[in-house]
């Protein structure tokens, strides 16, 4: 047995001791307040970023590129893991969580600008992102470094995922859809791990967002208002 697994089990024993009584109210059902769609990057601490220690509160989805789209025989649809809590557990808030330095966005950028040769599974994921990022790549200012371009596309990708949810008939109008970026690279501020709000129900103008949501004014920032 690899030591990594042994260490994981040791930490799980500590977790079980701490959380044993916290499952009493969610033994038979769940009614999470929010579904988050995070990138599965190991640096994105999907529950810890919210300080969440309450089983049943956050329905957490993860995939490379924080995608909300899946392909079906009938065309593109809202991914089932995102849609499930909205359709079946009464969840009325979706938060799409991008992050600085996203590898999936970087790979998509490289594929659109240079072409990549990836295994089929990765190619499938990039193929879901590429059509949504293509216009963003074309609109990027010429004077950006590669990391700067990628981080602007991270925002652009969050916007496109939010847009897909808002335009889908599967997500009802009373569901709030928020787009954020998790920053651990000092891109938005020097507070590593802080989440910045970049999109609320399709609105991306920073000043408008700050007027509409004064309670989170200091957390609304964007790198790119295209």
Radius of gyration (CA) equals 18 Å
Describe the oligomeric state of these chains in a short phrase.
single chain
**Can you tell me the residue ranges where pLDDT is under 50 for at least 5 consecutive residues?**
none
Strands in their spatial order, largest beta sheet: 2-1-5-6-7
CATH class: Alpha Beta
Task: Label the overall shape.
Answer: globular
Overall number of domains: 1
CATH H-level superfamily title: Carbonic anhydrase
Question: What would you call the structural class?
Answer: alpha/beta
Number of helices: 6
Number of strands: 7
Q: What is the fold-level CATH name, i.e. the topology?
A: Beta-carbonic Anhydrase, Chain A
What is the share of helical residues?
25-40%
Chain-averaged pLDDT: 96
State the end-to-end distance.
51 Å
**What's the order of the H and E elements?**
HEEEEHEHHHEEH
Biggest beta sheet attributes: 5 strands, mixed
């Amino acid at each position: 047995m690899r030591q990594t697994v042994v260490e994981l089990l040791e930490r799980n024993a500590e977790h079980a001791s701490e959380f044993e009584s916290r499952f009493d109210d969610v033994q038979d059902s769940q009614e999470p307040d929010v579904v988050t769609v995070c990138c599965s990057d190991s640096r994105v601490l999907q529950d810890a970023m919210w300080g969440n220690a309450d089983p049943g509160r956050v329905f957490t989805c993860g995939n490379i590129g924080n995608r909300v789209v899946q392909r079906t025989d009938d065309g593109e649809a809202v991914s089932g893991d995102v849609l499930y809590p909205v359709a079946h557990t009464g969840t009325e808030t979706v938060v799409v969580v991008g992050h600085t330095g996203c590898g999936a966005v970087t790979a998509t950028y490289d594929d659109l600008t240079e072409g990549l040769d990836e295994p089929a599974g990765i190619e499938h994921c990039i193929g879901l992102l590429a059509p949504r990022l293509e216009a963003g790549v074309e609109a990027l200012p010429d004077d950006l470094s590669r990391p700067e371009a990628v981080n602007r596309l991270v925002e652009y990708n969050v916007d496109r995922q939010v847009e897909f949810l808002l335009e889908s008939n599967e997500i009802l109008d009373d569901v709030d859809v928020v787009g954020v970026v998790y920053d651990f690279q000092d891109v938005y501020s020097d507070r590593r791990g802080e989440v910045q709000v970049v999109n609320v129900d399709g609105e991306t103008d920073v000043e408008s967002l700050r007027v509409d949501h004064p309670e989170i004014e200091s957390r609304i920032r964007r790198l790119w208002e295209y």
